[in-house]
Design brief:
Blueprint lengths: L1 E4 L1 H15 L3 E4 L1 H5 L3 H10 L4 E4 L2 H9 L6 E3 L8 H7 L1 E5 L2 H10 L2 E5 L11 H16 L3 E6 L7 H17 L7 E3 L3 H6 L8 E3 L17 H5 L6 E7 L3 E2 L14 E4 L2 E8 L4 E4 L4 E6 L9 H8 L3 H6 L22 E4 L5 E14 L4 E2 L5 E2 L4 E6 L15 E4 L2 E6 L7 E6 L8 E5 L15 E8 L2 H13 L6 E5 L6 H12 L13 E4 L7 E5 H4 L7 H6 L8 E5 L11 E8 L21 E8 L5 H8 L13
Keywords: Isomerase, Pyridoxal phosphate
Pfam family, one: TsaE
Organism: Agrococcus citreus
């Protein structure tokens, strides 16, 4: 499959839309530029006259800065561990959705926009907290904090409801007059086009800038976008042999039976889509276009949307995840919310994990998410979870249960690109809590990995033999310069796992705990030495002593390093595989009964593998699972 993005089309669309709305434009390039490529889209938006660029989190902002893009940037969805000092250093504006975020951003010296919930029911300062937040913002501004703007987001449930949001936003702005705000922005593509009253100082252009009708797919012929003078910027191609192409759900395309595909100028229709293949009838051979520009006789992305029961936004955005996660290196917690596709140790999808980014008490009668399809029946608590259809949660997942705090809560309102909302009533939740959408509840969660999603492997290892076999699997994927950090309590199986790694590498000598020598080097048949390190003794104070690390004269580039008690080494390395091992505390209830005394290597272990840095992208972590000899039926929280 080949995904082609036309930057000239994006630039032309921005110029067309900017001329229509008559105010400055913020070009939205979140989620890998809606699947078109973040850097390509950003440069095209600027070529088209965008005055600012919008991303969802600081991780996306850093990617643009590292690519040399120095235009004004705005990010608005933050991990509870976010480091706003990074935003201040890189000149990235941040929108804050709570008083706690406001305080943290101001203390870090970041430039701030207040994000207000005026009726969308997602992130944003709740109406009940608004007065206190604005008052505190005024105090902080008097003390030197940079409060530059205020923003909100229209729900698009009706013209009257949107106008009510405009009035509510105006009321909030009136309360914030002492702030002397420079930028007031409310409308995205659909609202900017339909509602002049919502344009204020700037509008945010997302999907329309990529040539997709922001109102919806209509009949699927792309006529709505064409009527606006927009040109589709994405073309997706695949090679068909006897009606089959090696592209499927894992690569991003949705299940869309009956949708047209153009193959060498002839129209065929999709008759089957599975994880790794797509079939059409008639069973022709040739170069096919799944969607592109209807003006060239190609199917529209909207046609795929109609057949899949969704919108063009989701269809194109999922193309940011092609390649089974190849090259996907998620940002750390200081930059972006945690988003994880969790696979079992056998490689099968288990859960999609996100974290709670906001918890707020809201009034009765509040619409939740776009269209206001769910309305709160009473005063209640909403929990915002930072995963959406750019991350693999299809829009059809509305109503699916998400586990949070030991209870299952259905997704309320429409699934958005970056977030879902849970109505948890009077139950308690805390920012940072893990939320899990199980594969059994959403079987469409195959191996598709969004551009911001990590892949982790997790499951129960039943005994020492299986632990050593898992080590062999890891060892077979290692190469010179790799570091494996083993984290877990005494007796969790760290040395047993290392023994398996050593066996895969053909390590000479007996692999045993390096406790008394701190580091032991094994020559290997594979080529690179195996360096087995006791990092607890090396950096046991938790703060790290890099001088001691230097004294060991480890070859971190030419050898393979396995560090027991390895967490303290994370700060000293750019890239690593972290393996967390825990005694059977999280083993499933139906695990074989075994002795669990300290040091008993035959009791079950719970293991989680996660990568960090460029050397451990999502595809490489995934590769460890292929053919793994252990099972993972555990459903415990992360």
């Amino acid at each position: 499959m080949r995904v082609e993005a036309d930057p000239a089309a994006i630039a032309a669309n921005v110029r067309t839309l900017a001329a229509r709305v008559g105010v400055p434009v913020c070009g939205i390039v979140k989620a890998a530029g809606y699947g078109h490529g973040a850097v390509v889209a950003a440069r095209a938006m600027l070529d088209g006259g965008a005055a600012m660029l919008g991303v969802v989190d600081l991780g996306e902002a850093v990617q643009l800065r590292e690519a040399g893009i120095d235009a004004p940037l705005l990010a608005w969805l933050h991990s509870p561990a976010v480091d706003f000092r990074i935003a201040a250093r890189l000149g990235v504006d941040v929108a804050v959705s709570s008083v706690a975020q406001l305080e943290a951003a101001a203390a870090a010296g970041a430039t701030i926009h207040l994000k207000l919930d005026t009726g969308l029911g997602r992130n944003g300062i709740a109406r009940g907290d608004r007065a206190a937040a604005i008052a505190r913002a005024i105090e902080l501004a008097e003390g030197g904090a940079r409060i530059r703007g205020a923003m909100s987001h229209l729900a698009g449930s009706s013209r009257d409801a949107d106008l009510a949001q405009v009035r509510d936003f105006e009321a909030a702005l009136a309360a914030g007059v002492p702030l002397g705000l420079e930028l007031r922005h409310l409308a995205s593509s659909a609202g900017a086009l339909a509602l002049p009253e919502a344009r204020f100082d700037m509008v945010r252009l997302g999907m329309a800038a990529y040539g997709i009708d922001p109102v919806g797919p209509a009949d699927g012929d792309g006529a709505g976008a064409s009527a606006l003078g927009l040109v589709p910027a994405m073309r997706v191609r695949a090679t068909f042999v006897d009606g089959a192409a090696a592209v499927g759900l894992d690569d991003g395309p949705l299940l869309a039976i009956g949708v047209p595909v153009a193959v060498d100028g002839r129209l065929a229709r999709v008759v089957a889509v599975d994880r790794g293949s797509l079939r059409i009838a008639p069973a022709v051979t040739g170069d096919g276009v799944l969607w592109g520009d209807p003006a060239r006789g190609e199917p529209s992305a909207d046609a795929w949307a109609v057949a899949a029961g969704t919108i063009g936004y989701e269809v194109v955005t999922r193309m940011g995840g092609v390649g089974l996660g190849a090259g996907v290196v998620p940002a750390g917690r200081e930059l972006a919310p945690r988003r994880v596709l969790e696979l079992g140790l056998d490689g099968e999808p288990r859960r999609l994990l996100g974290e709670v980014l906001a918890v707020k008490r809201v009034e009765r009668g509040l619409g939740v998410s776009y269209g206001g399809e769910h309305v709160t029946a009473a005063e209640t608590t909403l929990a915002l979870v930072g995963i959406g259809y750019a991350d693999g949660v299809t829009r059809t997942a509305t109503g699916r249960p998400i586990e949070l705090g030991g209870a299952a809560h259905p997704v309320r309102g429409r699934v958005a690109m970056d977030q879902v909302v849970l109505d948890i009533g009077d139950r308690h939740a805390t920012v940072g809590d893990v939320a899990a959408l199980a594969h059994a509840s959403a079987p469409e969660l195959t191996g598709m990995v969004g551009p911001r999603v990590a892949v982790e492997l997790a499951g129960v290892v039943p005994d020492a033999d299986a632990m050593e076999a898992l080590g062999e699997r890891i060892g077979s994927e290692l190469r010179a310069g790799d570091a494996v950090l083993l984290v877990g309590p005494l007796g969790a199986g760290k040395t047993t796992l290392t023994r398996g790694i050593g066996r895969a590498l053909g390590a000479r000598g007996t692999v045993q705990s390096p406790t008394f020598v701190i580091a032991r080097t094994h020559r290997t048949a594979a080529g690179p030495d195996l360096q087995h390190v006791d990092a607890y003794r090396l950096l046991g104070d938790g703060e790290g002593d890099e001088a001691m690390l230097d004294d060991l004269d480890l070859d971190l580039d030419g050898a393979i390093t396995v560090a027991e008690w390895g967490a303290p080494l994370e700060h000293a390395l750019d890239s690593w595989l972290r393996v967390e091992l825990e005694r059977d505390a999280r083993a499933p209830a139906d695990a074989p009964a075994t002795e669990a005394a300290e040091g008993d290597d035959d009791s079950p272990r719970f293991v989680r593998l996660r990568g960090h840095g460029q050397d451990w992208d999502a595809a490489r972590v995934r590769s460890i699972a292929i053919g793994a000899p252990t099972s993972s039926t555990d459903g415990s929280p992360a």
